[in-house]
Amino acid sequence: MRFKELSIEALEEIIRQAGISSFRAKQILTWAYGRDARSYDEMTDIPVVVREQFALAYPFDEPEMIEKQVSTDGSRKYLLRYEDGTLVETVGLPSQDGRLTVCCSSQSGCAMGCAFCATGKAGLARSLAPGEIVDQVMVVARDFGERVTNVVVMGQGEPFANYDNVLAALRIMNHPKLLNIGARHITVSTCGIVEGIRRFATEPEQFTLAVSLHAARQEVRDSIMPTLRRTRVGELRKTLEEYVEETGRRFSFEYALMDGVNDSDEDLKELVSYCKRLLCHVNLIQLNEVEGSSYRRVSREKVERWQEALEEAGIAASIRRSRGADIAGACGQLAASQGNTAQ
Ligand code: SF4
To answer: What local confidence, expressed as pLDDT, does residue 324 receive?
Structure first.
């Protein structure tokens, strides 16, 4: 097993079973994720014998940044390669107000096959280990020379298809002695895996939930998100109602408007009735067009019209600025350009 595969609890258990003082687990974690050590050699206050033991049993590896693209809007997109050659994308998004958000990936590729998504086209290579997800945040922090304030698990992959590793990664990010990113500033975005949403509602931390809806009409959703066919939009809504009841927290819907696909007046009407009496916020997105795909973005005027209609109906809605369009902004495009395909 590699070090980056360990959760906080798993490391504590290994230390306990080895009969090593329990505070060593915290020390090692702090070096790895709080002090940005790149090898056990740097962990100078850990006894050499423990370091050697760990280096043998749990090799420490770092992703290699093999490509970086900087957008005119300041966002930076990275292509990382893990020690087994797996490629993954991550994006750093600085804001004027001083926030630095990382959009990280939970899997290399994705099995969900959403028709409009470059990652979905390539299929799933593999799920990422907890430390590999955290490493993406650390790469961005290092490159910007700044603390990361927000994380959205919204890059490649379906986070709830890699639930345990994603949660283990979020706990490392959230831990006050490690990355110390507030739980409310960490968002997990699912395409609507209801079992995952139910489980997420029971977690003690106040992590935030986003759901990629993209259509409230069943037949339209089926056509663009075919793998989710067996999850009816009604069941998804009911699960989200229960999520709100259980957590008392608002979640958000992501809705990427696609010309002639999910942008009719009927789609809008259905969306309004779907969101009514649900504690949610709707993020309307102008699609990042994928090369070779027939899905086209809608006009700015149309997105604004949708926002107005939602707000008039008492539903909180905002327009998410599409960033990094000049650097293959949609997830999966950079990896696809490097020939990252499912195995
Ligand atoms: S949109 Fe998200 S869930 Fe759908 S294929 Fe792409 S990465 Fe996977």
So the answer is: 63
> What sign for the dihedral angle of Cα 268, 270, 273, 278?
negative
- Based on the number of CB atoms within 10 Å of its own CB, is 199 exposed (0-12), middle (13-18) or buried (19 or more)? middle
**331 flagged as catalytic:** yes
Domains in the chain: ranges and CATH: 3-57 (1.10.150.530), 64-337 (3.20.20.70)
280 noted as active-site residue: no
Report the predicted TM-score, pTM, of the whole model to 2 decimal places: 0.94
Q: Give 62's Cβ-side CA count (13 Å radius).
A: 12
* Spatial separation of the C-alpha atoms in residues 186 and 174, rounded to whole Å: 8
Banded model confidence at residue 189, pLDDT cuts 50, 70, 90: very high
- Of these residues, 89, 132, 158, 289, which one is catalytic? 89
Which amino acids bring their CB within 6 angstroms of ligand 1? 110, 112-114, 117, 119-120, 156-158, 191, 331
- Predicted confidence (pLDDT) per residue in 82-96, tens digit: 999 999 999 999 999
Residue 206 CB neighbour total at 10 angstroms: 14
Best residue for ligand 1 mutational test, from 89, 90, 119, 293 (most atoms within 8 Å of Cβ): 119
The per-residue pLDDT for range 211-249, each reduced to its tens digit, is 999 999 999 999 999 999 889 999 999 999 999 999 999
Q: Which of 191, 223, 340 to mutate to test the pocket of ligand 1 (most atoms within 8 A of CB)?
A: 191
Distance CA 121, CA 117 (A): 6
Average pLDDT across the chain, whole number: 92
**For the chain, percent helix, then strand, then coil, each to nearest 5?**
40, 20, 40
Q: Please work out, in degrees rounded to the nearest 5, the angle formed at the alpha carbon of residue 177 by the alpha carbons of 23 and 201.
A: 105
